[in-house]
Amino acid sequence: MSVKSESSDHPTPQWIFDLLNKIFLFDLDVAASRDNAKCPKFFSELDNGLAQKWTGRVWMNPPYGKDIDHWVQKACHSVAYGHAQVVVGLLPNRTSANWYHCYVYRQAIEIPVRGRLRFEGNDSHAMFASIVAIWLPEMSKEAARLRDIDTNDKIYTPEWQLPLLGIKGSQ
Question: Which domains can be identified in the chain, with CATH numbers?
Fold first, then answer.
């Protein structure tokens, strides 16, 4: 029998944050509370992380409710407009969602999380699969659009893909 979660708040499992923090050295948690913040600098529900400017190396585990699209859009745009160096988000793997196709698919590096996560404070595993989305400046279609690069052109290749094709990127 499946039970739907009563809350859209799913505190990040410490092990997954620690693993990603070793790589990205986060300095801002944009969707936290005093009890579950992963960085010394964080935005709580009272601070309204969506209304704040995201800068530096950002960790995001947003509320998974009806407003998740706003969080994912903000992550993508924070990198695209050059405010954040990187945004890494722990998200439900919802490939049928509009927000996924607008702001994650082909906009971020996606890493599927094997199995179902057990979020902090929960006795059982989540009812959904998760992904880690990583927005980097060179990954953003929005950043390319702002620089007048036509991403619909069949020859457009994001900078990060060039080495995979055996092409040296611009130095």
Answer: 14-165 (3.40.50)
